Amino acid sequence: MIEILAPYKETADAVVKHFATQSAVARVLGYEDLRNVTPWTTGKRQFPPEHCVTIERESGGVITCEYLNPEQQWLRVKDKAWPHPSGRPVIDHAAKQGA
User: Under DSSP, is residue 91 helix (H, G, I), strand (E, B) or coil?
Assistant: First the structure.
């Protein structure tokens, strides 16, 4: 059996490439210390939803929440101010409850 050490590496690499460095990703997410974002920027952990929204906004809609965290039930609310053409991402909490 092969153990996958960085299951989200492709996603992490795309984010780091877009922002140029792991330190830049940390700054975008509001952290001063790179160690706070290392699990996400190395692909060991998935970006949490609240950071997905920040990354999407700061990337100008290029890196979407759906790409960063596809297991989350994302919906779009029309918002002309949001950089993504389909609108602002929101989480469908009712879907989690089986409604």
Answer: strand
Q: Which residue has the tokens 């989480």?
A: 91
CA 1 – CA 60 distance, rounded (Å): 40
Helix, strand counts (H, E) of the chain: 6, 2
Give the count of alpha carbons within 13 A of 83, CB side only. 13
Structure tokens at 47: 């970006």
**6 secondary structure, DSSP code:** -
Structure tokens at 76: 């779009």
Q: Is it the case that residue 74 has pLDDT exceeding 60?
A: yes
Please count the structural domains in the chain. 1
Does this model's pTM top 0.85? My answer is yes
- Cα of first residue to Cα of last residue in the chain, in angstroms, is 37
3 falls within a domain: no
Residue 40 lies in a domain: yes
Residue 17 located in a structural domain? yes
